[in-house]
Write a structure and sequence with these properties.
The protein is α/β, with parallel strands linked by helices and 284 residues long. The protein is 46% helix and 18% strand. It has one domain (2-266). Helix 2 (14-31) crosses helix 4. The longest helix has 27 residues, at 52-78.
Length: 284
């Protein structure tokens, strides 16, 4: 019943869905002091603003954009595949993707919490199957909804555990693609501490290990939200840093930082990026 309702809502113009999301973003921000404080602090300490007026401009936009990031999933997940993919109006430079695919060793798309990463995954699935790493929700009742919306067409879901990593490896060895949120805080033992906007953040090492094991190409990707519900523009950059050893995690965070600079107002600054995972030793 809920899926049917969401499919009906997905028929609405994306601009309307975003308008509702902008309002909900403000409701969440002004109703949760913890959420609001984390958002402001992370944005403030990023340094991606020129002066106080610019900080307030980005903050105001980010409050609305964070709400849009939630409501637009109705459109991306529950609109039929082809119309949903058509929301991606550009993907550049496409030569990076083509070159990576021609190597035949798989593609690792690293999509930070920027814009609509689900739109990027659905777009990539039109070129070849993609296996996306995700963290199952704490609320079990949401699991069927996520599976119905996110795991469709040629998008396969892989849980963030050992069995999910095996699925990623198999996909790459078949020459397919995988998608990972590289700025998601990993579990203890699955990351190292590295600076992210000048602060130590527990950073995953999985992408580099997958590339080393399979020879896959790593590409950074972000589906930036366009104004007035016009859709999404995917931006790709290559990853030229080391994939293993000292400095690899910092190189990854530097690549993420550069992606965020494309549109700072669309990054999920409210995400608890600097938390210490259970069992991990806090940085000195």
């Amino acid at each position: 019943m809920l899926n049917g309702l969401l499919r009906q809502l997905a028929k609405l113009p994306l601009g309307w869905i975003h308008a509702v999301g902008g309002v909900l973003g403000s409701v969440v921000y002004f109703s949760s002091a913890t959420y609001a404080a984390r958002l402001r602090e992370n944005l403030l300490r990023s340094g991606l603003w020129r002066d106080e007026a610019d900080f307030r401009r980005i903050l105001g936009r980010n409050i609305a954009e964070s709400g849009k990031a939630g409501t637009e999933l109705i459109t991306v997940w529950f609109r039929p595949v082809i119309p949903a993919v058509q929301l991606v109006v550009s993907a550049e430079p496409i030569a990076l993707v083509e070159t990576a695919e021609q190597r035949g060793r798989g593609v690792i798309y690293l999509t930070p919490h920027l814009g609509c990463f689900d739109a990027a995954a659905l777009w990539a699935a039109q070129r070849r199957p993609i296996t996306v790493l995700y963290r199952p929700p704490k609320i079990k009742a949401l699991q069927p909804l996520i599976e119905a919306g996110r795991g469709r067409d040629r998008v396969q879901l892989a849980p963030a555990n050992l069995s999910g990593v095996r699925l990623l490896l198999r996909a790459l060895r078949r020459g397919e693609a995988v998608g990972i949120l590289p700025d998601q805080v990993p579990a203890q033992g699955e990351g190292v501490w590295a600076d992210f906007f000048g602060r130590p953040a527990y950073t995953m090492t999985l992408a580099g290990k997958l590339a080393q094991a399979t020879g896959a190409t790593i590409l950074m990707a972000a589906a930036v939200r366009l104004p007035h519900g016009a859709g999404f523009a995917i931006h790709f950059t290559g990853f030229d840093g080391p994939t293993v050893g000292e400095g690899s995690a910092r190189a990854l965070n530097a690549a993420i930082e550069n992606m965020i600079k494309l549109e700072p107002s669309q990054y999920l600054w409210s995400y608890n990026r600097y938390k210490v995972p259970a069992g991990a030793k806090a940085p000195d």
